[in-house]
Amino acid sequence: MSTYKAPLDDLRFGLYDVLGAEALFARLGHADANRELVDAVLDEAARFTETVLAPLNRVGDEIGCSYDKATGNVTPPPGFKQAFDQFVEGGWTGLTNAPEHGGQGMPALLGGVLTEMVDSANLAWGNFPMLSHGAVKALETYGEDWQKDVFLKPLVAGTWTGTMCLTEPHCGTDLGLIKTRAEPIADGKYAITGTKIFITAGEHDLVPNIVHLVLAKLPDAPPGAKGISLFVVPKFKVARDGTVGERNAVRCGAIEHKMGIHGSATCVMNFDGAEGYLVGQPHKGLQAMFVMMNSARLGVGVQGLGLSERAYQNALRYARERLQSRSLSGPKYPDKPADPLIVQPDVRRMLLTQKALIEGGRLLSLHAYSLLDVAEKSSDAGERAQAETLVSWLTPISKACLTEWSIENTYNALQCFGGHGYIHEHGMEQYARDARITTLYEGTTGIQSLDLIGRKTAATQGAGLKLFLADVETFAKQHEGDAALAEFIAPLRAKCAEWGKLTQDVLQRAAANPEELGAASTDYLLYSGYVVLAYWWARSVAAANASQRPQAFKDAKRDTARFYFARVLPRTLAHKAAIDAGADPLMALPDAGFGPQ
Amino acid sequence: MSTYKAPLDDLRFGLYDVLGAEALFARLGHADANRELVDAVLDEAARFTETVLAPLNRVGDEIGCSYDKATGNVTPPPGFKQAFDQFVEGGWTGLTNAPEHGGQGMPALLGGVLTEMVDSANLAWGNFPMLSHGAVKALETYGEDWQKDVFLKPLVAGTWTGTMCLTEPHCGTDLGLIKTRAEPIADGKYAITGTKIFITAGEHDLVPNIVHLVLAKLPDAPPGAKGISLFVVPKFKVARDGTVGERNAVRCGAIEHKMGIHGSATCVMNFDGAEGYLVGQPHKGLQAMFVMMNSARLGVGVQGLGLSERAYQNALRYARERLQSRSLSGPKYPDKPADPLIVQPDVRRMLLTQKALIEGGRLLSLHAYSLLDVAEKSSDAGERAQAETLVSWLTPISKACLTEWSIENTYNALQCFGGHGYIHEHGMEQYARDARITTLYEGTTGIQSLDLIGRKTAATQGAGLKLFLADVETFAKQHEGDAALAEFIAPLRAKCAEWGKLTQDVLQRAAANPEELGAASTDYLLYSGYVVLAYWWARSVAAANASQRPQAFKDAKRDTARFYFARVLPRTLAHKAAIDAGADPLMALPDAGFGPQ
C-alpha cells in the first residue's frame, strides 16, 4: 500500500538553506512570512496532505469521476468534496492571493511548496483548485474593476472554481484555428457558442458556481491567433452587481476516459449561446491566455515533481524491505535470508537517479517560484524586470524537465518493484499513468521546447540564459577557494561555457534555416535542464556545508551530487551531439518515406 | 481508432535481403521453407493477425479476464476462444515445432516473424499460446520419453497449453528462496504443494487441459538455487499412457489487476498436493528453467517490437492527418488550413526515433532467431556452437533493449497525439500500458543486464562479443571500397573498438571489485544495444543498395540510417561516461542516506 510523508526536511533545506527564503521574504516586504509562520504553514500543509488527501488517492483512481448524461452533471470520487471543503475552510485556496481579494498574501514560493505536497498526495484532486489560479491571474491582469469585484473573491476563497477553456476538437497547439464564436448581445454581454474539450474541472459539484475563461472569436475577428478574444462565462449567470442568476447555457457534454488522473474531471464543454463578458481588449485574448498558461505551466512542472517524490518514497521503502539475492561483494545483511534490494548497485542506480532528479528538480522549481515573488515585490525595477525575464525563460525548462523526469522517475520507481510494480494494489502503476499526462497538457514537451529556444532564447538574444549564466558565475567566484566544491564547480563552469557556445551555434544556423530551431528544440531543452540541475546540485553541497545540519545530511547531499555529476550530467553529451547534427538528419526523409501507413 | 497492417515489406526485406533467409534455410536443410511457402505463410499470418486478432485488442483491454471465486475458473475476454480455435486449426501453434511431435518443422526465424505480428495485433492474446513454447522446450530437452509422448503432442497442436510456474510471493529473481515442495508418493509421482504467482495463462477455458511446469524442492534438497527441481503438473491428471483422469489439486486462487495486458490471465496458482512428475534430474531444475526462460526472453523482446510497430503505425497516420500550425520554413501544404504535424522537425524526431529503433530492432531480433536455427540445424558442429554462444549473448540484449525501446516508442507515439493520446478511445495509451510489463517479466532489465555482463561476458571472457565483433569486421571489410557505406562503416568500426576497450576496462575493474559489474550493467547493456543497431543499420543500407528495390526504398533506409547514426547512436556517449564513472558514485551513499522513509 502506497504511503506519503511530506519531505519537510528537504523542503526546508531548499527554502532556508539554499534559497535564503527568510531574508528574501523580509526584503520583499512579506512581513508576515517569517520563519515561525512559514514553518507552521509547512507543518499544517503536511498534515492536511498526508492525512486528508493522500488516503483519497487510490479511491480517486479506482472510482474516478462519473457523468450523468441526463443532467450533464459530473460527480468527483467519494471524499473529494469533503476534502475540498476542508481545503477551503483552511484558507488554502487563497494562500498566495492578494489580501484585497481575500487572499493571505503569502509568497508564491510558499504556494509552490504547498502545490508539491498536494500533488504528491493526490494529483487528480489537486486539479480542482489548481485551475482557479490561471483564471485569477487573467482577471487580475485584464479584468475590469467590476469583474474583479465580482469574480475574484469567490475564486480566491475557493467557494467558486475556475477553468481555462482553450482547446477545441480540431485544435490544441494552434489556437488560431478555434471556431468558438462570441456574438454581442444586450448590455455589453456576448453570446458564446462552440465546443471546448479537455477542460479540467469543467464541471463538478464541489462548489456552486464555476467561472470559465473562454477563448472565442468576435464577428469582426481577423483570421488566426490575432483574432482571439477572452471571455468570462460563469456556469450560473452573474450580474455586474454580483447577483447570481439562472443557469447559463453551458453544459458538460461528456467526460474523457483517460489513462490516469481518473479523479480529475476532463470535460467536453458545450457553449450554446452562453452569456459572457469580454475580458481585456477585443482580439487580445492570446496575451491573456499566456498569463494563464505561464501560471499553469510552473504548476504542471510541480505535478511531475510531486508524483516523482511519492513514487520514490515507496520505491525506497520497498528496496529496503524486499529481501532477494545477496550483494555481489558478499552478504550485507547476513542475519537475514537474503539482502534487501538496496544493496544492489543497479537498484541504487535507479534510486539515486530519482533522488538526484527530485531534489535537484525541487530547487529548479522553487527558484522559479521565488522569482515570481521578486518580479512582483522587489522595490528595484531592474531586479523586477530581470526576475521576470529569468522566470519566463525558466518556465518551459521547469515544466518540461520536471514532467519528463516524472516519466523516468515513476518508471524507475515501478521498476524497483519488479513484477509487483505492475499490479494495481501496490499503487506504483497509478503514478506512472498519472505522470503520463504531465508532458502533454498545458503544452507538450515539444511546445515547451519551441517556447524555450524560440520566444525565450532566439527572440531575446538569450536574455534569460545570460542572466542564469551570470548567477552561476557569481556562485562559482564566491566558492573559488572552497576545496569541497572544486570537484563540482570546474565541470559546471565547463558545461556552462559549452552551453553558451551551443546556443550561439544553434541560433547562427537558425538564421539560415528556421528548421534548425525545431530540430534542436527538445534536445536543447533537456540539455539546458541538466546543466541547470548541475548548478543546483553544486549549490546544494555549498548550502549543506554552510548549514548547521548533521554531517550525514551534508554527506548525503555531496554523495548525491557526485552521482549526479558522474552519471546523469553526461546525458548532455548525447543531447549535444544530437543538436550538433543539425536539421538535415530530421528533414531529409520525405513525408512519404516514413512508412506505408 | 487504432489499426494494424503487418509490415510485410520490411519483414521480407529483413528476411531475404539482409539475412539471406532463402539460402540459409536451404543450407540448413529446411527443404520446405522455400520462398514461395515462406511468402504464403507471411501473407496468411498477416491476414489472421490483422483481421482476427487486431480487432480483439481493444475489447481485451476493456473487458479483460474475469475470475470466478466459487469455481476458480478464469474466462478470457469475448472472442479470445474463437480466435484461439482458429489459430489452432490453422496449425500456427506448432509452426516451428518438430514434426515428430506434430509440428510443422518450420525455422525458428519464421516463428519470430509470426510472433511479431501476433504481438502487434494483440499482445494479451498472444500470451496464451506463447507460454507453451517454454514448456515444450523444457520437455523436449529434459523430459522422459513417455513424458514427451504424452505432453508434447497436445502442447504442439495447441489443444492443451503450458505454463511456467517459477515465481512465489516472496521470491522472483532469487528462486533459491522458493518454498513450494514436492513429496514423493506412489508410482514415481510427487505431491506438489505451494503457491505460485504471476502465472501467465495459469487458468483459462481456451483448451481443456493446462500443463504446468513447476519449480519445487524435494525433501532432501540442498539449500538455495541448487536444490530446485522441475515438475510437470497437469490441470487434469494424465497417466503414463496418456489417459486423462480427474481434476488435479491445482486451482487458480485469484487473477491480478494490472496496469495493462488486461486480456492476459495473470494467475495466483495454488498447488495443494497436486500430482506431478519429475522432469529431468532431481535438484537440476535451474538448468531446465533457463531453457524455458531463454525461449521466453526472445519472445518478450518481440513483444516490445510488436507493440512499437503498432504504436508507430498509428502515430504516423495521425501525424499525417492532423493539421496544426505551419512549418517554420513556410507552409508545406498551402491548400490546407494548416500543415500536418509531420512537417514539424520535433515530430519528425519522434517518428524517426521510433522508425530507427523498430526497423533496426527487428533485425536484431530476427538475427537472434536465425541463430537458433543455425545452432540447431547446421551440419557444422563448430558453427552450431558459435551460433549457440552468439544467441545466448544476444538474448539479454534483444530482450532488454527491445522492451526498453518499446517504453520509449510507445511514449513517443502517444506524444505525437498530444492530449488525445491520453484518451482511451485512440488506443495509444493501451500500448504504453501494455509495454510497461515487458521490461519486468521474464527477468527485469536489471536482470538481463547482469546476465549479459556476468554470465554472458565476464564468465565467458567475452566469447559472444568477440564473435559479434568479428561479424562486424567481416562486413566492414566486404564493403571497404563502397563509397555509399563509408559514412556508416567508419563510425561503426570506431564504436566497436570503443566497445571492446570498454568491456576490458569493466572486467578489469570487476576483478578487483565485484560491484563494478552491477554498477556498469544496465548502461553496458544499453550501450551494447545501440552499437548492435548501428551494425544493423549499416547492413540495412548495404542490403537495400544491393537489392532490386525502388530508389525511394533505398533512400529511406539510408536517411533513417543517417538519422540513427547522427541522433540516436550518440546516446552511447552518456552510457560510456556512466560506465567509466565506476561503482563509487553508486555505492558511496549509505543505505540510510537515501531518505527518511
What do you see in this structure?
The structure is a homodimer of 597-residue chains. The first copy, chain A, is an alpha+beta fold and 597 residues long. Chain A has helices at 8-18, 21-27, 35-53, 57-63, 80-89, 108-142, 145-157, 285-321, 345-377, 381-416, 428-435, 445-455, 463-478, 483-512, 515-546, 551-568, 571-580, 584-587; strands spanning 66-68, 73-75, 160-165, 181-184, 190-200, 209-216, 229-234, 236-238, 244-247, 250-255, 266-279. In chain A, strands 3, 4, 5, 6, 7, 10 and 11 form a 7-stranded mixed β-sheet that branches. In chain A, helix 9 (345-377) packs antiparallel against helix 10 (381-416). The radius of gyration of chain A is 24 Å and the shape is globular. At the A-B interface, helix 8, helix 9, helix 10, helix 11 and helix 12 of A face helix 8, helix 9, helix 10, helix 11 and helix 12 of B. Chains A, B: It comes from Thermomonas haemolytica.
CATH superfamily of the largest domain in chain A, by name, is: Butyryl-CoA Dehydrogenase, subunit A, domain 3
Strand percent estimate of chain A: 5-15%
Total beta-strand segments of chain A: 11
Oligomeric status: homodimer
Helix/strand/pairing category of chain A: alpha+beta
The rounded distance between the terminal residues' Cα atoms of chain A is 44 Å
Low-confidence stretches of chain A: none
The Rg value of chain A, from CA coordinates, equals: 24 Å
Domain Acetyl-CoA dehydrogenase-like C-terminal (chains A, B): 468-590
Cofactor (chains A, B): FAD
Function (chains A, B): Involved in the assimilation of dimethylsulphoniopropionate (DMSP), an important compound in the fixation of carbon in marine phytoplankton, by mediating the conversion of 3-(methylthio)propanoyl-CoA (MMPA-CoA) to 3-(methylthio)acryloyl-CoA (MTA-CoA).
Domain Acyl-CoA dehydrogenase/oxidase N-terminal (chains A, B): 40-158
